[in-house]
C-alpha cells in the first residue's frame, strides 16, 4: 500500500517531484464495533489509528511535516510532545537523515513512546514542566534557530491528518458524527478540514470532541493551568488549535464534552475485552464520550477515532487488567489454572 502523500497527492501541497519521507502510513482499518453499536443504538465504526507505523495518527501529519522540512532544506526537527508526536517525529527524522529533538514533560509520558523516541535516536529532553510549557519553549526555539517545528501548529501536520477523513468517506461514505479525543486540538481541526474538502457541498458529520475532565480547557472555556489525567497523551491545558477546534464543532453542530478518568478507563477495558481492540487511554476518550453522552439525536452512522495503540502504555494496561496466574509445571496444576483460575 502506498503512503498517504502518494495516495492523496492531488489533495496535498506536494508536487510530483517533491521529496517524500514515508513509512507507508495511513490506510488504517475502519472496524465495525458490534457491542458499542448495540449500546448506543447506532452503527459505530472504529478508526484504528494505532495501526500506523509508529502506532499513532501522528504519522499522517509527520510524513507531510518532515517531507516539507526536507524540501525546505532543514537539517533538524523539533517538537514538544506528550509522547506520540515525539515517537513519530523521531522515526521520520531518522528515516530522512535529520537530527531530531523532542521535549516531553518529565515522568508524564507512557513508556512505549519514550522507548520509541530514544530508539530512533532523537535527543529526548525531559522538561520539569508540562506540555503547554514545552510547546511555548519550542515555538521560541524554532524562531531563533534553523530547526523545523513539527508540532500541529505546523500546517503540514494538519494536511496529512486530514487524510483520515478522506479514508472514512472513501470506505463507508458519509457519516453523521465523528467522536474524537481532543488535546492540542490539531486532529479535530484536521478531520474537519478533510471532511469539508472531500466533496464541495457534501454532507458533513457533527464533530464531537472529548477531553479528559482534569484537562478540559475547551469545555470550561478557559486554560487549565495544571492539567491532570490518566490519559497522559491529552494532558494539555492550553490547546494551540483552540479557535479552529471550537469553529469546527460549532460549524458542524457538534460540541465538546468532558469524560472522567473512570469513564475513560471503563471504555479502554471495554474496547479491549469486548471489541478486541487495544488502544491507549487517551484514545478511549472518544468511545467513553459516546457511551456517556449517547449518539447525537438522529445520528445513525458514527465513527470513533482511536488515536493510538494500547502497547504505547503498557503500565496503565497492567494496572487495569487482570493478573497472571502463577502455576507449577505439571498438567494438573495447568488444568486447575485454566479451568478454575487458581
Ligand atoms: N490521542 C492521542 C493518542 C494523542 O497522542 C493525542 C495528542 C491526542 C489524542 C490529541 O490530539 O492534540 O491533535 O488534539 N498527542 C500530542 C503528542 C499532543 O504530543 O503526542 P490533538
From TrEMBL:
Keywords: Amino-acid biosynthesis, Lyase, Pyridoxal phosphate, Threonine biosynthesis
InterPro entries listed in its UniProt record: Ser/Thr_Dehydratase, Ser/Thr_deHydtase_PyrdxlP-BS, Thr_synthase-like, Thr_Synthase_bac/arc, TrpB-like_PALP, TrpB-like_PALP_sf
Tryptophan synthase beta chain-like PALP domain residues: 21-308
Pathway: Amino-acid biosynthesis; L-threonine biosynthesis; L-threonine from L-aspartate: step 5/5
PROSITE patterns: DEHYDRATASE_SER_THR
EC number: 4.2.3.1
Cofactor: pyridoxal 5'-phosphate
A molecular function GO annotation: threonine deaminase activity
GO BP: isoleucine biosynthetic process; L-serine catabolic process; L-threonine catabolic process; threonine biosynthetic process
A Pfam family the protein falls into: PALP
Reactions this protein catalyses: O-phospho-L-homoserine + H2O = L-threonine + phosphate
Family stated for the protein in its record: Belongs to the threonine synthase family.
Designated name of the protein: Threonine synthase
